[in-house]
Structures are given as structure tokens and as C-alpha cells.
């Protein structure tokens, strides 16, 4: 079986590096595969930030599969193709999910997507503003900087002394907190 190299590492070395959390191999593999995913997301109605988020999620899925021995390569480039397929499926899932969502505005520049278009817009707005105020200090600041001040993830990362990836993760987690609170609140209303 021919072995594809990701810069200077074979697929077998990449798999071993993932299993052992080798930072150098993880970094090489991570960076060598991103561009292909970014091109796919950009070609399918996404942004660079979308691509970064999707790629990070896909990489975590691959990492977990490799660590748990649930990934078995069938050829010398299987790991690369598998990562791409995970990212592609995640992006398609997001596009499908977005077709059924509406937006609740917190402020003209900050919104929260939700799956419940039947609720009164004013009630949604009041709820989101209240829950936004209940977020932790860092969450509020990350979202304020991103949506109100239109700062890039790099600028936010610098303000918090984080990496850009950490800033993206934290922004995602903060939005997810609001979404989970929304789902919990809506489920209580339906009971």
C-alpha cells in the first residue's frame, strides 16, 4: 500500500502522532488539510469563519475516532479523505439546519439563530437580551467585540491573550450556551 506524506510524515506516522498527541505531527496534519475544507465551504455559501469552525469540529471528530481505534485506513490517503468527508458532512448538516431557522435579534448587530419561528418576536428579543446579560463576563465581551465592534477573531484573541482558534471556540461555546438556554426555555413553555 502506497503511503501519502503530509509534508514529511506518512499516514501511519500521522495516525500514531494523533494517538500519542504529538503536537508537531498534529500541527502539520491540521494545517496541511485545512485549505481543501475551506475551499469547499467557501464554494458552498460559507465564510472563512464558517470553514474554521467546521474544520475544527471535523478535526476533533477525527481525533476521537483515531484515539479510540475506530478509524481504520483503507488506503494511503484515507485519513485525509476521511477528515474532508467529516467536514463536508458537517457543513451540509449546517446548511440544512439553517434552512429551518429564523434569527432573533439581541441588538441590531447581534443575533441568535433558533429553530422556533412561531414565537412572538418581541418576547424572543426580550428573552435573548435577558439571557445575554446572564452570560459570563468573557462570553459577553467576546460576543460584544465580535458582533458590536466587528472585531476579527485575531483581534479578539489578542485582547484576551488567546490563540485565534481559542477565540473561535469560545465564541462558538457562548452562542451554544444561549441556544441551549433557548431550547430549555422553549421546552418548559411547551410542557
What does this structure look like?
- The protein is mainly alpha-helical.
- The protein is built from eight helices and four strands; from the N terminus they run E-E-H-H-H-H-E-E-H-H-H-H.
- The strands form two sheets. It has a two-stranded antiparallel sheet. It has a two-stranded antiparallel sheet with strand order 3-4.
- A hairpin with a 2-residue loop joins strand 1 and strand 2.
- Helix 1 crosses helix 2, helix 2 packs across helix 4 and helix 6 crosses helix 8.
- The termini are far apart.
Task: List the main descriptive attributes of the protein structure presented here.
two-stranded antiparallel ribbon, 8 helices
Fraction of residues in H or I helices: 55-70%
Specify the structural class.
Answer: mainly alpha
Spatial strand order of the main sheet: 1-2
H/E series, N to C?
EEHHHHEEHHHH
Low-confidence stretches: 1-5, 113-118
Give the overall average pLDDT: 80
Question: Can you summarize this structure?
Answer:
Helices cover 70% and strands 8% of the residues.
Element layout with pairings:
Blueprint: E1 5-6, E2 9-10, H1 11-19, H2 23-43, H3 48-67, H4 78-99, E3 102-107, E4 110-114, H5 121-134, H6 137-148, H7 153-160, H8 164-190
Antiparallel strand pairs: 1-2, 3-4
